Amino acid sequence: MAETKKRKTPAQAAAAEDAAPKRSTRAKAPAATHAGEPEAKPRAAAARKAAPRRRKAVAFDPMLHQEEIAREAYLMWLSRGAAHGCDEEDWYKAEEIVRSRYGAAR
Fold first, then answer.
1. In 10 A of CB 72, how many CB atoms?
2. N or C, which end of the chain is more exposed by having fewer CB within 10 Å?
3. How far apart are the C-alpha atoms of 8 and 95, rounded to whole Å?
4. What is the pLDDT of residue 62?
């Protein structure tokens, strides 16, 4: 005598699915899945990265900005009405203006 398997009808299959326990889609915490084992030690906090170091202030070199200083001095000379005799004063003021743009200390 041959054994025959009984096939479930679609209604019976749906009822069996409803009755079966459903698996959680979320992973469980390790402590909950390993009952009886001691809880894992909490991890040490991640090491913080050190703050980026500021560059040392580079001394302002007027020779590197000579064209810019000259342009500022020229504009001051023009604003004074192109009067002669204060060229050094204009140059020093222009140098301070350019120095302040780059945030360099004296």
1. 20
2. N
3. 94
4. 80
User: Is there a domain that residue 71 lies in?
Assistant: yes
Confidence (pLDDT) at 64: 86
pLDDT of the residue at 58: 66
DSSP assignment of 62-87 equals: GGGGHHHHHHHHHHHHHHTTS-SS-H
Residues 94/70, Cβ–Cβ less than 8 Å = yes
- Are residues 59 and 104 in contact, defined by beta-carbon separation less than 8 angstroms? yes
User: Rounded to whole angstroms, how far apart are CA atoms 102 and 58?
Assistant: 10
Q: How far apart are CA 33 and CA 39, in angstroms?
A: 11
Paired tokens of 40: 């894992």
Does residue 34 belong to any structural domain of this protein?
Answer: no
Tokens for 15?
A: 């009822």
Q: Which residues of the chain have pLDDT under 50?
A: none
